Amino acid sequence: MAQTEERLLVQIGTYNTNLQAGAGLPQDLVDWLSPTLHVSSFLSKNPRVPDIVAIGFQELLPLHLGLAGLSDACGQERDVHIRTQIEAHAPNHESYSLVAKVVNVYTRDDTVARRVCDVQTQWTGCGPAYMGNKGAVGVRFRVRDRGSKAGEVFTFVCAHLTAHEPYLANRIADYNHIVRTLLFAPLSTSADQRAATIYSTSHLFFFGDLNFRVSLPPRSLGNERPHHEEALTMLKDEKSREALKEFDQLQRAWRDGRVFVGLKEGPFWTFKCTYKYKLGEIDKYNTKRSPSWTDRILYATYTDSPATPEHSNIGNISYTSVPSYTTSDHKPVVSMLLLPPPVPATSDESEFSETEGRTPTLQLPSAYVPTPDPLATLKRYIGRVLDRIIGYIWALLTLVGAGSAVVGIFNFFCGYAAWRWWWKTPTAAAPVAVA
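RESULT FIELD:
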């Protein structure tokens, strides 16, 4: 019999650090992660910490280091930093276990961690030739004995999609590419033993710098006011931002069924646009870009019905940005989500063993059937090989240029020219014969 348990709390955080590496995250994470540890206190008499915490970063390292795969040291530092802060600010100093590092996913030791199994990680690139300058990483695991002996499957995807306002079609193509190529091995509890898409899960969380922009309509004749100024005037209060959200590309594409099918999102307009800020400023935007909600958190659960696409059985307790972080042109975003209670197993299902049982999966509209790309592995490794080649060359040029690839290229050609000159120049006069 599956044990009876309360609804799980899941905390999701995402932050584009603007290639700042170790300098991109303050030593004290209380502004970003700690408030959400207490916001759920209304659920019980005592403050309650999340059962699962997932933190995703984009532009964590300078691009040449990321492409070269030289991120282990920074990733290890972030893991220790985040976990230490989470545990330090937990009301009863609850402890957490790391599930995976491609997305920093932690599970609470006294509620979930001991039942986590079948952990998988995966990645895919959406850049030129499938390179990883844009793309997604994913973590999937199963929690046993939740609803049934087989339990439920959790999937977390952190993505960074194509930038710039005009490239909406590219962002939608990026998402569809992720769905088709970010594939996981089938679980032992699955009846279908083919590669599984991100939708083959009980709960799906999709977050990151998704780069969808606020796209205002063409200016009327005689109105020369720049778009970014119009958007800035609509950020002053929540009512104005609610009107501005109607020009959000993600919102409009989602309503048209072109992207994030089956996923839901909390009221993102309750906080100001998270991009593009002036570095070092709490509340001043860079006027080179129209302010936009580029950093988002979406989710779905298996009890959500396709008949009510705007309603989710996941409770969005908190969804906000953190203006106090000023080292990036983005602001971090965090959400606290309350999952629905597990659906008890039927009498027939309760007879199955853990490996014979079936985990519930998301319900999708009949017209939407996500299909794995048969060339997914080939495409991923083509991108990975190009990542490494370009990354190492770029890193070497940066090293030669004392931190600048441009200077490195200049130094390389100067060195090559000097070598050619030396090779063609006689080093000494011919020796004179002695009689």
